[in-house]
Structure to design on (1344 residues):
């Protein structure tokens, strides 16, 4: 009876309502049964993305949504400005390179007023945790995935596409077949997808959106901010550093490990001794950090559990940690 | 996304493996499909009860097992010695009264050597949490229920019956029909129950026993002792009293509320503000205590969650509580 | 991939909606979560029973409801008139005998106007399949169970009790504890049950009633009549006899086996070769009949499947059966 | 209580064991929990594909596997021989066109001995229903999907790749990112996938393969042959034509509609009046045929149900159909 807790930044835990909605007998994606399902998913995503744009639903991971965005709106030789925000920012760069786009690494937003320039945002990790106002902010392409804040298993990508982007799509000559957004758009208008719909995941999507709508979008963002804030407060109270000092994410907290403590060992001990699956660092952060997510189906005692387990693990590994100190800070912040 | 935690002494949380095993298409209790299911349940219960006696499986709550024990082994006018161990000890007394048995309230065990005397133990709350050695200790009747340590929904009672008790059954003239143990025994030998079997619950029972067997009976008891010990340690560290001072249960910890704090309000706040459903006190303990269970499908972070939430609740109600102090003690004890 | 079909008169197949509703995390029967659940079950049962009377919900099989009805409304020595309608009618007789009631076997309805006489109906098998108007017909006690027309697993009994019956309950001196209807009534008024509620089954009950309400009570009865009629038509078309000639049930069709064909072998072959679990005959009908149910979660192609499989089985056993003939008649009747 | 039956050639019904295996709490694809899951899936697919080659597992529909096969083994300008076997053969052609490959439509197998030539088979619809011996027949690329014979929801593609194909992969310069088979192969060796694994579908895949292995591969093919044979026999007995005269599929039977009967109306009536979702014809066959699948989780009474419903529908629409005639033929063939 060794209980397991998933506190990683994706896949995140799936609520039982969503898991069970996907255990109903399957329905056919080209039958009238499915039309209201897709119609509801379409509208639910527009609500979540805060947009009137079409939100395409693709049977792929979030990366597929990113690949498709490159395939459908560019031509070889186009210049691309990538704001590199961590691991997945790097992936954008690699995708662009794979399809022959010239990269200019840098910082800053792609400006709205340039008629030929698209503002593309990878919201795979931030969606649901962060208030992203697609239309208000003039985001042309917003890419999301199922297995993060949306509390679903992996297997769906979502891409919202502005009218400005659809214009640019007309001139894109890159070869494309699986990620053909124009055909997806035509199908979406008929409450279909271009290829076989990932029926069960879309049914789960509706259930997940229903849960988010019941809570209210503003409350969803507040909850994530509250959990992230408590986690960061607890980390600081323990004398540990935050890896992302200036604009830490509300999805996941990257915690710097004390000197002499290997983050990979922390990951392993938390899993094997305490049943907690968080995440270690990647690439150059490997071994230096440990990441606790507070994303999607997460609440007060997920934070308490994560912090308490981290305290026990670090103390057990010989770090100078006072048990309960981080928890106390989290409790104080979560009581508000 | 307000998460709920069930930390009450029954029903207790049901593991997903068990919940899903009961969601398979139903099978017929008089068909060959069901014979191996009941056979497995029968043997699994003997393992859990540590007995070679028959363990009857009744479609009722645990109370039905108690009622049946009175109906099947006594006659009106018989003298009964009841060791009153709390709420359910009182229920025994009431059952005996209802069926016209003369009560002698007192303390102490019914001695094994008296040929006409049966040693009956109500293990509804203790089963799984406590090492109860039916055969070794000479227990004639042991009564258990599904919704406590066995991690199942309510609806099944279990009664192990010794040969000595079966002898006494022959002379019992009390009217009985639904709880006719002799007929249950005859049916059990054929891997059936006397009336329609509660098929899905028995399938869930097999799954629950499989989980306990994988853990090992000794480890199951150790886990419960460890969780109970950590809970009691945390309670003391917070300066709160334990309601049962001398032999506290490994199933549930009854915590005395500080002066001026109403246990019913604590119950209510824990539920409404923190999503924790523990239990208040009953009868004369009402309002004076709050009960946190660590029973069945329970592990380290259920204790942490329960204690952290209790700290936050009591502090929020104005009690003199230092946040994290109980948690720290629980962490220390649970790290061992 | 040998598919199984349950066409027995109880347990009957449970719809996936109901199975999955019972796979959600369990809730506590004494917590505010459960009050609306029981309230809804209470009202749903009144709708189904066509009554304003209380309908008690007991954690037992249907037989428990029958036993309780005897325990709560009679005294030893009372005279009882039993209309023996098959196997379960016999069970009433045995229950009455067990509790010392004098039996008078006979036929006819207990008349409404006798002030001291209760009209008790065992509707365990008929409920949902047959229009039973509790209040209109002046039924004092109506007993139902979960695993028949209600499409639930076994483990719940339902008993509706009229005001006239509650009067009689005041004078009943039979010992009772588990089936204490007065206490159940007091608890029901508070949306509780006297002992631990069979929480998951009651949640499933609400889901099952929701399905029936969506269909509409009249349509439910019509559907059962239509399926029963098609089954009987098919049986006659095959030249087989109906065991119950005058008032065959809409729940199940008992089919007389051709000369030289053993009904028990038919049962066995249908199960092992075709995956169909119907029911054989009981007691003196054993071997002479085979029973196909069309009860609860049943529709057109359950009848077709049952008849087609029976044809194949009988022909395979050497009976003079023309394949497809019964099916054709069923199709004709079901097309209407 | 209007029951629904899915008799379409994909998605096909998902067995309850598989549905429920996917309803367990999700696990992390980069954690040790997932390694044995992917390892088991990998080996299970090799068993099913009858190959020692790697079988890649992609988070996409089957079409993604086809697109990836084009992306990873060819260069623009390559000549491609497509054997056009229906709708999906046409899709191959379109994919090749989209990526700039020159098409030569024709018939016949691509010969094994040509060192530069790959033998690619689209087995999306045939897998499980048909004996496809990858290694024995020298198939270089075999593409399958989850939602057909494998009895899973849509969302996974499978591609087995021979050593000869891997050689060719080294010279392929087509841009690729999401479907990068070389990277998938490197990850597969570590029991991972290149991008986030579709965890729940892969867990379901293991459960589905377990069911197929329990039945035995030869028995699986025999079952499909038996069901297809009975369906075709029934169709002929009804005087209807088979659309594919020479080598009809064991996955699905395309039935020519009688003169004056619109196949689309047949589809609609079967769905709305009888709850059967089969499939109409596509493109030039639209309106002329109706398709009944017998694929994956299918057995004797799925055929009976499909044929009986078709008879009732056609007769109801005025066709010259004798009820029960097709069923009788199917029964006769299925009794063997």
């Amino acid at each position: 009876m060794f209980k397991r807790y998933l506190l990683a930044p994706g896949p995140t835990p799936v609520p039982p309502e969503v898991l069970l909605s996907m255990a109903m007998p399957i329905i056919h994606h080209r039958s009238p049964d499915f039309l209201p399902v897709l119609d509801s998913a379409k509208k639910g995503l527009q609500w979540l993305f805060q947009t009137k744009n079409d939100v395409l639903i693709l049977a792929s991971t979030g990366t597929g949504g990113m690949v498709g965005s490159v395939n459908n709106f560019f031509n070889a030789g186009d210049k691309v400005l990538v704001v590199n925000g961590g691991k997945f920012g790097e992936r954008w760069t690699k995708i662009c390179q794979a399809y022959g786009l010239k990269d200019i690494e840098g910082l800053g937003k792609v400006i709205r007023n340039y008629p030929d320039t698209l503002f593309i945002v990878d919201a795979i990790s931030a969606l649901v945790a962060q208030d992203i106002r697609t239309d208000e902010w003039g985001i042309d392409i917003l890419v999301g995935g199922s297995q993060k804040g949306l509390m679903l298993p992996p297997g769906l990508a979502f891409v919202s596409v502005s009218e400005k982007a659809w214009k640019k799509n007309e001139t894109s000559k890159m070869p494309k077949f699986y990620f053909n957004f124009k055909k997806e758009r035509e199908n979406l208008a008929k409450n279909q997808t271009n290829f076989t719909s990932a029926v069960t995941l879309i049914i789960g999507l509706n259930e997940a959106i229903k849960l988010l709508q019941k809570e209210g979008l503003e409350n969803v963002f507040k909850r994530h901010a509250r959990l992230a804030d408590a986690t960061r407060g607890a980390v600081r109270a323990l004398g540990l550093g935050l890896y992302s000092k200036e604009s830490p994410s509300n999805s996941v907290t990257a915690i710097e490990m004390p000197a002499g403590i290997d983050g990979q060992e922390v990951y392993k001990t938390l899993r094997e001794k305490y049943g907690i699956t968080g995440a270690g660092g990647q690439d150059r952060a490997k071994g230096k950090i440990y990441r606790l997510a507070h994303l999607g189906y997460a609440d007060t005692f997920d934070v308490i559990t994560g912090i308490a387990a981290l305290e026990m693990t670090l103390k057990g590994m010989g770090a100078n940690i006072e048990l309960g100190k981080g928890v106390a800070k989290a409790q104080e912040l979560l009581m508000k």
In short: Residues 76 and 335 of chain C are 54 Å apart (CA to CA). Residues 104-111 of chain C have pLDDT under 50 and may be disordered. DSSP finds eleven helices and eleven strands in chain C. Chain C touches chain A at residues 16-17, 20, 23-25 (CB under 8 Å).
